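Notebook entry, structure prediction.
Reason for the run: the old model in the group folder had no record of what sequence produced it. Starting over properly, with the input documented here first.
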Amino acid sequence: MQVFHGKSVFAGVAIGKIQVYSKAEQQVKRVKIEDTEAEVARYRKAIETAKEQLGALYEKALQEVGEANAAIFEIHQMMLEDDDYQESVENMINVQKVNAEYAVAQTGDNFAEMFAAMEDDYMRGRAADIRDISERLLTVLHGGEEKSINTKEPTIIVADDLAPSETVQLDKDMVLSFVTAHGSVNSHTAILARTMGIPALIGTPLPLDETIDGKLGIVDGTNGVIYIEPDEEILKKMQAIQQEEKEKKELLLNLKGKENITIDGQKIMLYANIGNSKDLATVLQNDAGGIGLFRSEFIYLEKDHYPTEEEQFQIYKTVAETMGEKRVIIRTLDIGADKQCDYFEMAKEDNPAMGCRAIRICLTRPEVFKTQLRALFRASAFGKIAIMYPMITSVKEVRKIKEIVEEVKGELSEQGIEYGEPEQGIMIETPAAAVISDMLAKEVDFFSIGTNDLTQYLLAIDRQNTSLDEFFDSHHPAVLRMIALVVENAHKAGIWAGICGELGADLELTQEFLAMGVDELSVSPNRILPIRKIVLETNVAEYKKNKQEI
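New structure, fully documented this time:
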């Protein structure tokens, strides 16, 4: 058994024969040209042909992976029309009097190297796109046909790298997975793989020859491993995981697209919790109605400096645009307690869970808060963003937030910067907020109950202390009564109330939450469909009746 490790692009397990795909290198010779005008015309005709091919690829991708991902091929069309790229090729033909093939190959190499040397990950990923369009032009100029990966049986494709055009043309019924020796997690190919739901690895140092071609392989996309000729133990283990995944997929097929409505007509919103924009594919794959908790603090935790307004804006904008008409609830900075950033230079606290964290940091460091709010309000012009403030304990805090929000809106208006009018809500995660939820409900558009902190504060138990696990009862009557009270007060004030803590994903409580009238559950993406199943099978009135009789 051989084992190779790579970077995971998409999780999942694939078991099958390996097919090594080697792209034939296009031989480009330097040929002296006398009629440069005719050669430039030949180059321009090749561009038009390549654009037609990309148009066809766009239509195919549109059907298979959606508009956002099909846009890759629109980008490739624009790259073909790029002035700098075209000028480089045509100048080389005219000045050096060389053939179009040589000019395209040289320009492609130069531009790809330039992008590959950039510091920004996204821009580095564009090097593959440059190579892809250059290869396409060379194929057209050579008069050849676009090569695609063909296989007679479902296989694991192993290659040095795969271009976006090659990836989108994969027959998903015949391709179990792909593994490449090179590539970037930020490449369009990687993005397409995630959207298509194909287990995939990149940056995997495995031999691309007959020593593995035709051999049995297992791709463990979750852990970034490929096994060549696995032993019996590994094979059985992976087959079991694969079976679990199959059952989940069947659940998806049966439940995807169905409304979250009980037998007796009660509706509930099922949203997803995510930590960054990389999770969006999983959100859409699991048919979430929106994002109920985008943990913006991860933007801060992943950096060694305060993220700028522009850095945050681009992330929020991407999420909003990707989700379209679906609501995206973004929680403002929730640093503190178990989430620390060195560059915040926070004072050491004996009890950080009850210390300076979340909204307390924002209100004591308004410059940091305003930077985030500016980015959020700007991004709200591009989708259905809602803003949620954590760790609230008083009406006074909410009103102070509103003052800062008005300052931000005023500054944006003065600068002529477009912004939306997002919904604004708060997390109910302190007993204080829960007890005065009737007062708080008059100040905001929605509640989202953070059950993790609410439980620890109600029970006076540090949830990070594993030695107290036996005392940490998330089903404690006090917790459930508090949730019911918050929902009741929200409805009295005409606003909606959801749950975004771990308790929302507890399948034992789904019916109880329905009985309380909870309007929304925001959970890990992979919990949405199991919850939907329970919702569809529940008669709330009957559940309440049976509960009273007990």
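Summary: The first helix runs from residue 36 to 65.
The old model has been moved to the deprecated folder.
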